[in-house]
Every structure is written in C-alpha cells, then in structure tokens.
Amino acid sequence: MMKYMRFAALSLVMGLLTVGGCISRPPVLYQLDSGSPTLKEKSSGLIVLLEPVDLADYLNQSDAVLQRQLDGTLMPDRDARWAGNLGDNIDNVMLQRLAGRLSGQRVALEPVAGFEPDIEVRLSISRLDSGPDKPAVLEGQWRLLDRNGKLRDSRPVRLEAAHQGSTADQIRAQSQLLQQLAEQLAGAIEPLSRQIVAARKARPSEPQAPQIPTVEPLRTDVEIYRF
Could you tell me which of 143, 44, 38 has the C-alpha nearest to residue 101? Predict the structure, then answer.
C-alpha cells in the first residue's frame, strides 16, 4: 500500500513538472524575410514613396502566428509568435525588395524632406496566412499614383505557395509571396517611370518673356536763351 501511494505521489509530481514545463516553454519567434536583395548606396532617379501597407484587421489583432484550418477557420499557434510588429515587418520586406529591384530609383517608406514623390505606391493586404494542410496565400490590391495624385495603375493580387507543413516552412512560403508581390510592383513601376521621364523631356521649355526696350527720359535741362 505504501509503495502504491509513493508511486502515485511521484507520478503526480512528475505530471505537474511536465505541465509546468509546457506552460513555461517560450514560444518561437518568426520574421518574414526579404531575401537579402542587393542595394545600391546612391541613386538619382525618380522618387518612389511606399505608403505603409494597409493590413486586414485579423493580422493586426495579435502577435500570434495564425494557422488556417481545413474548414477555413483561423487558430493561433500557441508555440509561435511574430518577432515584433507584423505590419512593420511587411513594410520593411517590401521596401527592401523594391529598392533592390528598382536600382535606379530612390525608394522611401516615409516622405523625403524637400522632395515630392514622383510615384506613390498604395498597397493593401486582405489575406496573408497558411496552415499545416493549407498553402500560403496572399490576397490584396495595389495602386500607383503620380505626383498629381492621378491613378496610373491598379491591380488585384492573389498569390499562392506550397510548403512542407512546419511553421518555419510556412513563414518561408509567406515571405516568398511578399517577394513575388514586390516583383510585380517593380514590374509595373518601371514602365511608368519611363513614361514620366519621357513626358518631362518632351515638355516644351517655357518661352522667355520678350525684352522690352528701355525708354530713356527726355532731357529737360536744356537752357533756353532769349534775345
């Protein structure tokens, strides 16, 4: 009897230690990857302003990595967290990829003091997730505006990438989708940049104001002699 009680007590202690260990286990932190694009130190082309990406509400509600289930629902991964703000991470990935792809342009995330952007990029992402049995999916829309605020191009986006099922490989697949999105944006920005530059070169120079001859005042200091 005593041996049984000792065994039961030991089992209870081991069970509590196991549960405590599971609770105290720190989550794994993940970041989306830009793929280490090559960046030039200087560029003298047009200014491309990337507005902060407009994310769907469900992506901003928590720092947990969400998992898409077979029935389409989303469940937080208890063992995975985003390392920092997800929106800032996505902004940085897009900025790095665009700057590497548009090597002749000046790409900025914030307005550049003293300069007006020649092209403004507005991007919204309505979906970016995956699951153990679901592919990584990115859905959204981007718009390109010129410095006058005129819409020059717009396109809805849906991209999909397979993965091996692990959380780490899901994050790799989501990063790949963002890199593909940046490539699409760069492909649309390049011809628009050429159009803007060509339009400026073809713009006739302003005619100079005609030269108005200076009118000299008549002299009135001539002496008059009377006889």
Answer: 38
Give me the helices (H) in 71-214, please.
86-101, 167-202
Alpha-carbon distance 86 to 53, whole Å?
10
pTM over 0.85: no
Nearest-angstrom CA–CA distance, 136 and 168: 12
> How long a stretch of residues is the chain?
227
- 148-158 pLDDT tens trace: 999 999 999 99
Strand, helix or coil for residue 224:
coil
Residue 28 CA to residue 16 CA, distance in Å, equals 23
The burial class, CB within 10 Å (0-12 / 13-18 / 19+), for 24 is: exposed
Measured from the Cβ of residue 49, the count of other Cβ atoms closer than 10 Å reads 21
Joined together, the tokens standing for residue 223 give: 């002496």
Taking only the tens place, the pLDDT of each residue in 25-45 is 899 999 999 998 877 666 668
As a whole number of angstroms, the distance between CA 15 and CA 41 comes to 58
Spatial contact of 162 and 78, defined as CB atoms under 8 Å apart: no
**d(C-alpha 128, C-alpha 194), whole Å:** 32
